[in-house]
Amino acid sequence: MAGHRRMSPTTSSFASLVPLVALVGATPWADALGPWTPVPAEDVRVEAEPPQTDAPVVESPKGASGRPAVVPSAAPVPRKPASDDDDERVEPALPGTDAAAVNNPAVAVGEPMDPHLPGFKPWEVGGFIDVNYAYNSNNPDNHVYRGTSVQPRTGEFTLNHAVAYIRRDPIPGHFSPLFEFAAQGGPAAEALVAYEPNPGGANGKFAGPEVWKHLSRANIGFRTRHGTEMVVGLQLSPVGIGIHWSPYNWNYTVTWQLNSVPYYLSGLKLAQTFRDRHQVQLWVINGWQLLADNNKAPSVMLGYTFTASEKFNLAEYVWIGPEQADMRPRAWRLFSDSQAVYNTERFGIGALFDVGADPRTDLPLSPWQMWMNGAVFSRWRVLGKVRTWDMALRPELFWDRDGRMFGVPQTLISAAFTNNFRVFNNLLVRLEYRYDHSTSPNGFFYRGPAIVDGGPGLARDQHTVFFAIAGVFAHRFGGKRG
User: Fold this and answer.
1) Which residue did the predictor score with more confidence, 153 or 90?
2) Is 202 helix (H, G, I), strand (E, B) or coil?
């Protein structure tokens, strides 16, 4: 899948990775950032029975710790006694339309997710199945949607992505272990790791797409009662708005921006939260969406998030490090990602701006290759409080001056309009129209028999309609009961 994230020359001719944390009805962007900060130990009573409420739940995007905080959007309302109708009642807290970006990818029925509530349950088990049909106006013979790893197939019914996970979140005010493991399968899983390098080429072992394709998350760590966090392993990348788990994004498809930055990072994360609203992060990782490194040196990313409230937050990430075979400082990649999100139960808006540059010391005169992009995200509730209908609109512009990210010098212009229907508590139906345009005179998108990158007959425009159904499950457990 050419155009799948950045083009980085490596010792093994490693091509480049294609690739909302992000905003899902609240970060379309499923690893939503929300304040996830400790409170004094004396204020936490985890052994108490959790209060039961029917208040709608809103997941706020990226917050001080990079983890979502779910807070009641209204004062708690006592839960009615159980009745024969309970099985038919749909809870208002399904992720996907109410949440935007979720490190915490699901909300369990009747179980509080706010870690500051008494009775918080640290463990969660869940998963999802995403099935779609995509009609592409170019009808490519290879059925490939060029440039994305989230919905890589078109022109057929596709079991796009299936994920199962278990995780342990920290208990506020306590020294807590952290754990996360997620397994995955489907075209989206294979496309995600399609360009993983195998260092050493034919003589390399124990790396590459076949080794990693079924792993989505795998990390362990701890968080102290004072907000210091250390996590190691395969982790969700906080860069960009949106994640690879499409049911938790505002729009069904993701931006070109998200397909140009890491969906995942492998290495060490250190974070410190200050005064509940500020967090600084230091990441030391193998590289730009790499489980196996393409050279012998790590890269570094610095992050800062500010969570003004459960409705508004800002985030900034800066990347520096060697992403080529040349590891000298004069060849290091420089990159900046800026995000802002405002989200309520009825309405949400977000924006991002990225700029990056690589000094290509492998080319004559060592030219700087640059790219820049911006996108605006919006969502609004049309109908319903239980069974809901939400809409989301997202325009985007991606300037790939030298073809560093997608292999072709061009500007990509895109817009997506999505209808999200929450039919049942664990069932989301989505209908999306998306338009993409490339300014490359030779075209960029596959069309009919034109399915060779850089070959003749590629299209400059494409219209795509997606119909998708997602089943989502999550259950919280492990809290002490009085």
Assistant:
1) 153
2) helix
Nearest to 367 by CA among 398, 401, 325: 401
The DSSP H or E segment spanning 188 is helix 187-192
Residue 11, classified by CB atoms within 10 Å of its CB into exposed (0-12), middle (13-18) or buried (19+), is middle
Structure confidence at residue 295 (pLDDT): 83
The residues near 31 (Cβ < 8 Å, ≥ 6 apart) are 21, 22, 62, 66, 68, 101, 102, 103, 104, 105, 236, 238, 243, 248
Question: Residue 431, exposed/middle/buried by CB under 10 A (0-12, 13-18, 19+)?
Answer: middle
> Residues in the chain, how many?
482
Q: Which of 435, 477, 434 is nearest to 460 (CA)?
A: 435
The model's pTM: 0.78
Q: Which residue has the tokens 């918080």?
A: 120
Radius of gyration of the chain (CA): 22
Q: What is the pLDDT of residues 217-237, one digit of tens each?
A: 999 999 999 999 999 999 999
Q: What's the CATH superfamily of 41-477? A: Porin (2.40.160.10)
